[in-house]
Structure formats: structure tokens, C-alpha cells
Amino acid sequence: MDKKLKEVFPNFGDLERDYKNYYFIKLLLSSDYFDVANKPKGVLPFHQYKTHIATAIEEHLYESAYYSSSNDGSHLHFTVSEAHQNQFENSVNIAKIKVEKESGVKINVSYSYQNKNTDTIAVDWNNNPFRDENEKLVFRPGGHGALIENLNHLEADIIFIKNIDNVVQKRIESIALYKKALAGILVELQQQIFGFLDEIEHSNEDKLKEILIFAQNNLNIERLDDFQKYTLENKINYIKSILDRPIRVCGMVKNEGEPGGGPFWVWDSKGNLSLQIVETSQVDLANANQAKILADATHFNPVDLVCGIRNHKNEKFDLTQFVDHTGGFIVEKDRNGRTLRGYELPGLWNGAMAKWTTVFVEVPLITFNPVKTVNDLLKPAHQPQ
């Protein structure tokens, strides 16, 4: 960078600091030079080490090898913009050689795009179809809730989900410990639930009571008031319906003011109570009681999920059957000085997983190291060891 600055601006060394900063940023962002403004976060220089500078992609490769490998192999999946896949592949190919040599783990990397069929039509302020400068209808991506389809196509037993920017190497031992702990909780729950589902057909009333108590105490599922009035067949069907679902164990950190969602109890339109991850945009801030509940939230969702997507017969769930389709978002965006409105699908860890079996687990703040702005890279966790 320094060499390029002096090449483009021969008198760079003589400039005042403000001018140096301006030309540095201009060179960094300009499409004629480093074009950082148009590159995905995963391929940008992230962490500086004594021997090299690592991208977020390289850090994810290390994490994958560290806690999600089996039989000297690991599978890592990136959902990317189609326009950026080549950049991802180039970065992955460079990093894989180094990481596989150091870890002894072969890393299999795959990619997917957000399905364009999930794009939604934009409207203007009067809810008329929004048209661009060429009078063509404008469609917008359906948001990360559309990625439930990508998740549905993965061939896996257990899936770890996290954001591309939440990676550091200097805390990898602690981070891996808690990732494995979340996965351990998931596997233990699966074993208990699968066991119940395997024997439920032959269960007596006492066994059903035991299963129901487990669902209440371990899965936070409310017991129906009139459950005892059900016939044995209907009791069995009800218990099947609450147990035979995909499972997610969600790591939660203490709330320190980061923007995003958190863990809450939520009543649905039918009066059913369940654990959900709720974003600020889903809360009626005009309602003083709702605003207070949000303000008093003790924990925050760092997108630290471990998911079990197979049933007790080792069949993949159809994840699209567990979406709360009423949980979408209306967003307002600017396009060339004009305001448009768009509909985004229920968020991946909000409405798209609303009908999953959900467990929240507190994890320490050291596992959460997001980079939402470039200044976040100045925080201790992202500085050289």
C-alpha cells in the first residue's frame, strides 16, 4: 500500500497528515486501485501476523480444522454473492495450502448463492410497484431468511452457523471449547429425544408423563392445560409433534449494547409460548412495555448456532416446513435518492427457525468478536499476538 501511494502520488511523503489520510482512503476504496469498497468482507485483509496477513476466510479454515473436523476431514460452506465467488475461491485456495499443512486436516469447501426466486418486488411509498430509471420493476433479495433453503440442501448431520467476520485465532482454544460444548449439548438432546421417539409407539401413560416433563424442563415447551383429556393416541401424536423437529442450540453472550437480536419468550398468534431470537425491528417500540422488555434484555444473539437437521430415523428434515411465514420484515431503502419499501423473509435465526426445538446457552464474551466497522479491527482480540 505504501509503495502504491508513493507511486501514484510522488510527493506523498511531503503531504500533511489529513491529505495523507484522504489519499490513503481514496486509493483503498477506489475501483481503479484496491477496490476495497466493492469486495466482500471475507477476502479483505483482517489480521496481521509476523509472517503474513490473514483474511477472515483463512481464519474460518483454521476454526473448521480446529473444532469441526472428523477423520482428518472438515466441511466448510460459504453462502456468497455469485459475483464474488471467484474472489472467495482464490482466497480459499491460497489459505487451504497453509492451513491443511499446519493442521493435518483436509478441508472441503463448498458454496451456494441466495436463490433469486426468493427475491421480492419493491414498492414505492404508496405501495405501487417501484420502477428503476429504465421503467423496469425492481426486485430485492429476500434477506438472510432466504438462506433456509441453502441450509436445507446441505448434506450434514450437525451444522455450525456463524458470521464471516466473527473470527480470531488468538482465542481459538477457548472458542473451540465452547463450540464443542454447544455441540455436546445438541448431541445429548438428540440422543434423549430420539430415544423417546423410537419407543413412543409402545409407551404407556407413565412413560408419556416422563417425556412431557422432559419437554417442559429441558426444551422449555409448555404443557397443554387439557392434555390429560386427550386420548392415548392423541397424546402420542401431540408429543411426536413437539419432539420431532430440527434442533438448534444457540450460544448467547451478555448484552453490552451491540446492535442485533436477543433471546426472548414469544407468544404466537395462537397463544403458544416459545423461545425465539428477536430482532429490534420486530419489537413495537411505541409500546412502552415492549420497549422496556427490550431495554432490560440481559443477553444478545451473536449468531452462534449449532443445528441438528436430521430426525430419529436419520432422515433430513424439510426445514422449509418449520418457518413462521408471518415473521417477515418491511424495510425502507434509498435508491438513487428515491425511497422504496421491500419485504424481507423471516430472518434465518428468527422466523425461518421459529418452529425448531430451541435451547439457549450462555457463552462468554470472548467467543464474540464481530467486525462491523473497520475500527473493530483495532480491538484487542483482533490485534497481533
DSSP helical segment count: 9
Stretches where pLDDT is under 50 for at least 5 consecutive residues are: none
The SSE order reads: HHEEHEEHEEEHEHHHEEEHEEEEE
> CA-to-CA gap between the ends?
23 Å
State mean pLDDT (0 to 100 scale).
90
Radius of gyration: 24 Å
**Relative strand content:** 15-25%
> What is the number of beta strands?
16
Oligomer: single chain
Helix content: 25-40%
Biggest sheet statistics: 5 strands, mixed
Structural category is alpha+beta
Can you tell me the overall shape?
Answer: globular
Give an overview of the whole structure.
With 385 residues, this protein is an alpha+beta fold. Helix content is 31%, strand content 20%. The protein has helices at residues 2-8, 17-29, 56-67, 85-103, 148-152, 172-199, 205-219, 232-243, 288-295, and strands at residues 45-48, 53-55, 69-70, 73-79, 106-112, 120-121, 139-140, 158-161, 247-254, 262-267, 273-278, 299-300, 305-308, 329-335, 338-344, 357-362. The strands form 6 sheets. Strands 8, 9, 12, 13 and 16 form a 5-stranded mixed sheet that branches. The longest helix has 28 residues, at 172-199.
Keywords:
385 residues; alpha+beta
What would you say about this model in short?
The chain is of the alpha+beta class.
List the helices and strands and how they pair.
Elements: H1 2-8, H2 17-29, E1 45-48, E2 53-55, H3 56-67, E3 69-70, E4 73-79, H4 85-103, E5 106-112, E6 120-121, E7 139-140, H5 148-152, E8 158-161, H6 172-199, H7 205-219, H8 232-243, E9 247-254, E10 262-267, E11 273-278, H9 288-295, E12 299-300, E13 305-308, E14 329-335, E15 338-344, E16 357-362
Parallel strand pairs: 4-5, 9-16
Antiparallel strand pairs: 1-2, 3-4, 6-7, 8-13, 9-12, 9-13, 10-11, 14-15
Helix pairs in contact: 3-4, 7-8
